[in-house]
Amino acid sequence: MTTKSTSPSSSPPAPDAVLLLAKSAFAAAPHQDMRRLATLAEGLAGARIVRFAFTEQGTPSLREALLDLVEENAGRILLVPLMLPMEPSFHNWLTKTLKRWRAADPRPWPSLSIAASPASSAVMARLIEDLAATSQDLDLSAPARLAAEGSLVPAQKRRVLVCQGGPCNSAGADAIWGHLRNQQERQKLRVTGDGVMTAKSTCLGPCNLSPVLQVFPEGTYYGGVTEEAVDRIIAEHLVGGRIVEAYAYHPTGRKQRLRHLPEQT
Question: Under a CB-based contact definition with an 8 Å cutoff, are residues 114 and 79 in contact?
Fold first, then answer.
């Protein structure tokens, strides 16, 4: 993945495809918004294809959308992140994750480029002014007193924590979290077997084994987690009840290193 600056007299080659990136979507409305933005962006930079994807939870995921474009033999793909604000680590973990996906895929890959953060756009002030013109007053009157509602205590016995500490974020934990959550919805893991709940966590401890997730009630640590590792953990541990030793790291009282080192490209 490359990011190049160009002078006003030059322009980068036109991409075959533009992929609009958002972070997460949990309901139908954000997906509708992204479809509308993709429609507005048709023909952007001369591209013949404009689609959208989510870097965390939501479908299509970035991995799914990107691999679809690889299958369609797109020659050049422009990634356009729409996140505000954009975390400083975004480019770092995205590049590492894309390299990992590419190393695992034997097919020829397109060249990739990425647009700058929306905050750097020269038209941002105009956009904010345009949005200000759409303002509506908020109703801050006292709400009617409602009877307190009860809540069900979750019956699910399994918990999966995905580390969101600095090293794990830099290693692509956002993509791992998104894959886990999407699979949780697709496979109905909340009501399958013992039932599964998932959550993000602050640092889980073994930072040099990033990205890290932990499965309870056993408290099993998994390190160097990839999408393929998540799929095995779901099938073998969460559903089958068997720890996936290939990715598991048990407390030994000694420092441990990753057994599956990421590809260096």
Answer: yes
Across the chain, how many H-helices and E-strands are there? Answer: 7, 9
| Contact predicate 182/234, CB 8 Å | no
- Residue among 131, 14, 129 nearest 77 (CA): 14
For 88, what's the count of Cα atoms within 13 Å in the CB-facing half-sphere?
Answer: 1
Q: Is the peptide bond before 217 cis (omega within 30 degrees of 0)?
A: yes
pLDDT at 171 over 80: yes
Listed by start position, the domains of the chain span 17-118, 158-249
Distance CA 69, CA 21 (A): 14
Question: What is the pTM assigned to this prediction?
Answer: 0.85
The model's pLDDT over 110-160, given as tens digits with 9 standing for 90+, comes to 999 999 999 999 999 999 999 999 999 999 988 877 777 888 998 999 999
Side-by-side strand order, sheet with 49-54: 49-54, 17-22, 76-81, 111-114
Query: How many CB atoms sit inside 10 A of residue 61's CB?
Result: 20
Backbone angles phi, psi at 52, to 5 degrees: -135, 160
Contacts of 33 (CB under 8 A, 6+ apart): none
Which are the contacts of 175, defined by CB distance < 8 A and separation ≥ 6?
55, 56, 61, 62, 63, 93, 97, 227
Pick the CATH number of 17-118 from 3.40.30.10, 2.40.40.10, 2.40.320.10, 3.40.50.1400: 3.40.50.1400
**Tokens at 45, concatenated:** 């930079």
The pLDDT value recorded for residue 13 is: 79
Radius of gyration of the chain (CA): 21
CATH architecture of 158-249: 3-Layer(aba) Sandwich (3.40)
